[in-house]
Amino acid sequence: MQADLTYPLFLVLLGAGILIAALVPPIVAHYRLPRLMTLPIGCVLGGIGIGFFLDLPLVDVIDGGTVITHATELVVLLSLTGCGLKIDRAPGWRSWGTTWRLLAITMPLCIAGVTLLGWGIMGLPLAAALLLGAAMAPTDPVLAASVQVGPPGQGDGDEARFALTSEAGLNDALAFPFVHLALAAAAAFAAESALPGDTGRFSLAVLQDWLVHDVLWRTAAGLAAGLAVGGATAWLVFRVAPGGSVADAFLGLGLMLASYGLAEMAEGYGFLAVFVAAVTFRQIEVRHRLHSDLHHFVEQIEVMGLIMVMFVLGMAVGQGLLRPLGWTGGLVAALFLLVVRPAAGWVALAGAGLTRRSRAAVSVLGIRGVGSVYYMAYGLGHAPFSVEMGRELWAVMTLIVLISIVFHGFAAPHIMAQLNDAEQGTPVERVP
């Protein structure tokens, strides 16, 4: 196929994907057809077929890292905005107890687990292994929509749905300090040795600067930006505007971009600012119908971005993205998804008062997706890792995402249905 047909072909396929996303769910529900495939799986399979069978320009994840970073960044931002807008529960230490457990225990255990597996089984240098661990740690807010709470005003449902929603909203930001640690160590090693920074140098100076700037300052700046923009926007909309009459769906985009931009200007975590801004805005005039309108608008744009990202990722796979993967990478992927994440989730929720079913659901349904793609592209684009190491990391990360999408797509509906049946039926024994 000629190169000048590539862009029109891409538009046709993207348009077809968006039409399928709009038409298939209601048709399946109306005719009670079997649910044979999810949208992300279909997009990936379509991309694999196009990438394998058609002679299209190569999707180079290394050379095109900047484009991938910004494309996935936008999709994650939309998803974080949607997550924050649809949470009905007011933030609090006790009311969000499961969230804090998942952030403080599960995520660090996942990062440590993948780092050790990558270093011990694959033989990855330490900084590269840490980047892989940080990229794989967050539960993806984009692909986890099917197990999250419903739209604004419909309640937070069972604790499992709330935990997965709030975890996905926050851990995409709180994995960033570990990404920055890997980048700082890689940069320090490259500056000292004039070699690629795959090994990293975790000196006291690197750790001190990381703790002060990348952990404390960036987190505080992100929180402050989110609170300021979310609070100011809500005050203008619900207090200054006559009778809360603002109903422009683009308000959601303005809230997202203003909070993200302000946090980035202050060298804070923009992902954290966006989620905090959305939650803050949601908690003021919590019953106002505007929240539902904003959420619906943001969700629709997010789905369009998801289709594009999954399709292009599939194209890259069809063109050989997994080629650098060895059996050790496959083993690491399997151990992470089958052992590390479930065990880390189960440990973190011990004593949280969840039923066994809820505790198991939260532990196994931490899907990996667009957020991981973003972190990998961002990390390799901001630190002097070798090209060969970058391609190996991309291969392992992509395999984990693909397996996670397939497992989540087919298992999540059954797990959540059983959980709903258990919650509505006979009380289930709670874990002490």
What does this structure look like?
It is a single chain. With 432 residues, this protein is mainly α. It has a single domain (37-424), classed as Up-down Bundle (Na+/H+ antiporter like fold), CATH 1.20.1530.20. Helix content is 71%, strand content 0%. It has helices at residues 6-31, 39-53, 65-86, 97-120, 126-136, 159-174, 176-193, 204-240, 251-265, 270-282, 290-318, 327-348, 356-364, 370-381, 387-424.
Q: Which key phrases capture this entry?
A:
single chain; 432 residues; mainly alpha; Na+/H+ antiporter like fold; disordered N terminus; disordered C terminus
Q: Percent helix among the residues?
A: over 70%
What structural class do helix, strand and pairing data support? mainly alpha
- The radius of gyration computed from the alpha-carbon positions, rounded to a whole number of angstroms, is 21 Å
Given as residue ranges, the uncertain stretches (5+ residues, pLDDT < 50) are: 1-5, 426-432
CATH level 1 class label: Mainly Alpha
- Per DSSP, what share of the residues sits in E-state strands of 2 or more residues? under 5%
